[in-house]
Amino acid sequence: MASRQEILDSALKCVNGDRDQQYGKPEDSFSIIARFWTAYLNSPGVTIDRKDVAAMLGLLKIARIATGAQKDDNWIDLAGYAACGGECQSEKPTNNTARA
After folding, report:
1. Can you tell me the distance from the alpha carbon of 60 to that of 6, in angstroms, rounded to the nearest whole number?
2. Cα separation of 81 and 38, whole Å?
3. 3-state SS string over the chain?
4. Does the predicted TM-score (pTM) go above 0.85?
5. Buried b vs exposed e over 24-52: b needs ≥16 C-beta within 10 Å?
6. Burial class for 67, CB neighbours closer than 10 Å (0-12, 13-18, 19+)
7. Could you tell me which residue, 31 or 97, shows the higher pLDDT?
8. 80 burial class (0-12, 13-18, 19+ CB within 10 angstroms)?
9. Is 90 helix (H, G, I), strand (E, B) or coil?
10. How far apart are CA 72 and CA 55, in angstroms?
11. Which of 1-5, 8-12, 32-36 has the lowest mean pLDDT?
């Protein structure tokens, strides 16, 4: 098992590294995911935003941890989703990352 510093360092590399070049900014993809999830749920009055996407992806990682999977990747991703979600919560949406 990795140390907390190793987990945080790995999460930092994920959210500030090559993934931005491969997939774009997490906030932008979270906006798209939020629109898809909102449409899929098709429930009047229910709107998912970028912050919700980060939280629910974090819950996915928590579910995987609860199954007993001993993978550092789950903890690294959970830390990364928490960091992205915190940033989404503190930012005001821009035109291309507007609330879903």
Report:
1. 21
2. 19
3. CCCHHHHHHHHHHHHHCHHHHHHCCHHHHHHHHHHHHHHHHCCCCCCCCHHHHHHHHHHHHHHHHHCCCCCHHHHHHHHHHHHHHHHHHHCCCCHHHCCC
4. no
5. eebbebbbebbbebbeeeeeeeeebbbbb
6. exposed
7. 31
8. buried
9. helix
10. 19
11. 1-5
User: How many helices, marked H, and strands, marked E, lie in the chain?
Assistant: 5, 0
Give the residue extent of every domain in the chain.
4-95
Cα–Cα distances in Å, from 95 out to 87, 98, 99, 100?
17, 5, 9, 11
How confident is the model over 42-95, as pLDDT tens digits? 999 999 999 999 999 999 999 999 998 788 899 999 999 999 999 988 876 554
Instruction: Record the tokens describing residue 64, joined without a space.
Output: 């995987």
The answer to whether 11 touches 77, Cβ cutoff 8 Å, is yes
